[in-house]
Backbone:
DNA sequence: ACATAATGAATACAGTGCATACATATCGAT
DNA sequence: ATCGATATGTATGCACTGTATTCATTATGT
């Protein structure tokens, strides 16, 4: 087969390879040129599908939030929603730490309030609210406040677990995200 | 005055200007060359004082942890240690968001278990443990577990507040780090 | 005073994000 | 089916970055 001039699905190929790169070495910056190289396309080709590097990150952050949303939707139908959500969150953090980091960091760096990532984030928060509602608990506060507190706990524990990888906090010392989430949500 | 060939205090000047840069535009990567340019020294001069860019980040992360340690030591002598600590943490996050971000991210990216930053981080955790002890509370768990939970809450709320800057969670919805900290520590 | 170490400059190279200009494939109206 | 418009990829180039090598200047200890 003589190489096709057009890739055919470059946009998704870029995102796919980008996620592989994030998985292979989390904590490293993506390189657009390297993505193009791996796919076998010219250095400038990605710019036909994204406005630039930040555009790729935006799309990836949206994917990250969608994974979180899916986890929340699954958790909402179980008998201990917050526990299950925390477990799923931890699983994602372990399987795709690079993607989760990029997702979490995204708002801090390239923040546009109406971008794809921001929309995906809002959907994730809505799903999180549903989880908190499903979990029940004392109505000491609004469900939104509870959801925000749960979100904070999930973020904090995830970050702490990546800290722990270099030594300080070993397993038994680490807080259990599920228990903490139930605690701050007023459940149990 | 004819310009001195040797700067005299380049190492500290680099760190100082780096913090200014982080404060001026948080969320942007540092540039060694720009630091050198701002100070008025050759592009390679910083390499006499740091092994490379990661070395500068390491030193900055250590400074960040030391600021947190100082905040914890102040808080330990008050009548509501966790509340005061949370307030100080939030103040640092507001005043120097770039430095705090770099500090928090450091372990994730350039992790050496015995570097300057790792030592500073351990000291911060020790100070945090002291705060939790000062706060008292039910001894349902070890003070280390409580401290880790408090740390997670501080990290999570700080991250959430930087999210909030782009819209989703407005003030009244955001969890109060102090109350959450006391909750997960079993105080009150 | 003078050898030596510490600190800075000059130059160079590979890698990156991105812009402009050009080439080829795809697709819709006729 | 043809043919022009559009989408998608290539070629080339620029400014910037981190870092290595080599050389110049200053500080320092005996």
Residues:
């Amino acid at each position: 087969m003589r190489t096709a001039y057009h890739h055919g699905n470059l946009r998704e190929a870029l995102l796919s390879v980008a996620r592989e790169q994030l998985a292979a070495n989390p904590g490293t910056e993506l390189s657009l040129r390297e993505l193009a190289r791996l796919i076998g396309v010219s250095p400038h080709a990605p710019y036909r599908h994204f406005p630039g590097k930040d555009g790729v990150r935006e799309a990836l952050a949206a994917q990250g939030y969608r994974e979180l949303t899916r986890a929340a939707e699954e958790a909402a139908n179980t008998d201990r929603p917050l526990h299950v959500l925390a477990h799923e969150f931890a699983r994602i953090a372990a399987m795709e730490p690079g993607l989760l980091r990029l997702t979490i960091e995204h708002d801090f760096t390239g923040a546009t309030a109406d971008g794809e990532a921001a929309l995906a984030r809002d959907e994730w928060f809505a799903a999180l609210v549903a989880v908190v509602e499903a979990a029940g608990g004392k109505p000491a506060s609004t469900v939104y406040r509870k959801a925000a507190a749960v979100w904070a706990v999930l973020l904090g524990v995830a970050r702490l677990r990546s800290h722990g990888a270099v030594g300080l906090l070993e397993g038994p010392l680490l807080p259990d995200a599920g228990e903490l989430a139930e605690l701050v949500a007023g459940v149990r």
Summary: The helical segments of chain B are 10-24, 32-39, 53-76, 81-95, 97-109, 116-135, 143-164, 177-184.
